[in-house]
Amino acid sequence: MGDSHTWTAAPGAAEQARSVLATAWSCAVTADGGREEFVGAHTVAEDGRVLLEVPEDSALLAAAICAPRGEPSAVLEFADVAPVPVRHRIRARLWIAGWFAPAEGGLALRPTRVVLRRSSGAELVGVDEFAAAPDPLAGAEAHLLAHLADAHPDAVERLTRLVEPDSLHGAVRVRPLAVDRHGLTLRIERVRAHGDVRLAFHTPADTVAQLTERMHVLLGQAAAAACPRALQRQRADRER
Question: Which of 23, 41, 66, 196 is the one with CA 20 to 30 A from 223?
Answer without folding.
Answer: 196
